[in-house]
Design goal:
There is one protein chain. With 275 residues, the protein is mainly alpha-helical. It has one domain: Methane Monooxygenase Hydroxylase, Chain G, domain 1, CATH 1.20.58. It contains 12 helices and no strands. Helix 3 runs parallel beside helix 8. The protein is globular, with a radius of gyration of 22 Å. The model has no long low-confidence stretch (mean pLDDT 91).
Length: 275
Amino acid sequence: MSDPRDMGAETDFSAQMSYGDYLSLDTLLTAQHPISDAPDELLFIIQHQTSELWMKLMLSELNAARRAMANDRMAEVFKTLARVSRIMEQLNSAWDVLRTMTPSDYTTFRDRLGRSSGFQSLQYRLIEFALGNRNLAMMRPHAHDNAATAVLTDECARLSLYQEVLAYAARQGMTVPDGLILQPATAAHHADPQVQGMWLQVYRDTTRYWTLYELAEKLVDLEDYFRRWRFNHVTTVERVIGFKRGTGGTGGVDYLKKMLEVELFPELWHMRTDL
C-alpha cells in the first residue's frame, strides 16, 4: 500500500487538532453505559442518543427560523425549515433500526430502565413548545431540574414558530387576530376561522401571495414528517412491547395514539377541504 504522506495527507497530530479532537470522539464514543449484559441495550442507547443529537440541531434550526422570520428574512427561513424537515426524515429513519429489536430482546433489559422514558426528553418537549404544542403541565417531569425548568420557561416566553408565521402574515397585510400573535402562547394552538380564511385567500391566489404560499407548504412538509415520526413511534412501541404501560408510567401505545391527533398547524390542513 502507498504511504498516505505521498499524497499530501497529514499524519502527525501530536501538536495539532485531529478529527477525533474536533468532534470530541473520546467523549462521544464513551458516553454509552449499558447497565445490563443484554446485547441490544447498546442499540437502544445509541438510537436515543443520536436522536437527541438530531433534536439538538433541530432546535437550533427552529430558533434560527424564528429569528429570521421576525426580521422578514424569508429566504433564510425557507432554507432553515427545509433543513428541519430533513432532520425529521433522519429521526424517522432511526425507528427502522430500533424495530430490529424484538420483544424478546427488549425484555432482557427493560426492567433495568426503571422509570426513565423518552417521555421525559427535555429537547423533545422544547421542540413541541417551539412548534406551538404548548401544554404547561408537561413541564412537571422536569420540575426536579432547575436548569431544565428555566429553559422551558424561557421558551414559553417566546412566540412559537407558528405565531411568528402568523405575525409575518399580519405584517404583509393579512387579517390575523391580535390575540394569536401579540403574546407568547401558553396553550396549544387550535384552529381559528379567521386564520383558516387567511390561508384560503393565499391558496386561491398563489401568484399574488407566493411567499406566504411557499411558507405554508414548508410548514405542511414539516408537520407531515412530524406526523410520520409520531406514527413510527407508535408502531415501534406496539411491535416491541405491545400494550404494556410505558416505563415512564404513560399508557404506552394508547397514550401515543392520542398524540397522533395533535395538529400543529391545523388551518393549513383544514382549509384544503374548502379549496
